[in-house]
């Protein structure tokens, strides 16, 4: 079994925004969830997605399955948000980042170890 991400690096808080729909002027409406004990790392690079397109990445948010709060199914939330009209967002500090990819990392026992969200 893999050890959790060390708590000494899970020192950040962020706000997850899930689209609940769009209003009459096509502006998204949001449901917010406060995330604690996460790790936000700024990273500026261009990556290739599964569809072989290039995307500019501005950061990664790490959410540990055991130490970060609350426990969420980020894949399902991303699908819900996109179905409602806009991708999920993460607000860290005063900056809103669009969630480009959600990657659930599984440990050697088949359990969720942590989730990585690639942000723009």
Structure description:
This protein is mainly beta. It has one domain (7-119). Helices cover 8% and strands 56% of the residues. Strands 1-2-3-6-5-4 form a six-stranded antiparallel β-barrel.
Q: Tally the helices.
A: 1
Label the structural class: mainly beta
* Biggest sheet features: 6 strands, antiparallel, barrel
Question: What proportion of the residues form beta strands (DSSP E)?
Answer: over 45%
Across the major sheet, the strand order is: 1-2-3-6-5-4
Distance between the termini: 32 Å
Beta strand count: 6
Mean pLDDT: 89
Coarse morphology: globular
Helix content: under 10%
Cα radius of gyration in angstroms:
15 Å
Query: Order of SSEs, N→C?
Result: EEEHEEE
Number of domains: 1
Q: Runs with pLDDT <50, length 5+?
A: none
Could you list some keywords that capture this structure?
120 residues; mainly beta; six-stranded antiparallel barrel
List the helices and strands and how they pair.
Blueprint (H helix, E strand, L loop, with lengths): L11 E11 L5 E21 L5 E11 L9 H10 L5 E4 L2 E12 L5 E8 L1
Antiparallel strand pairs: 1-2, 1-4, 2-3, 3-6, 4-5, 5-6
Q: Short description, anyone?
A:
With 120 residues, the chain is mainly beta. The chain is built from 1 helix and 6 strands. It has a 6-stranded antiparallel barrel.
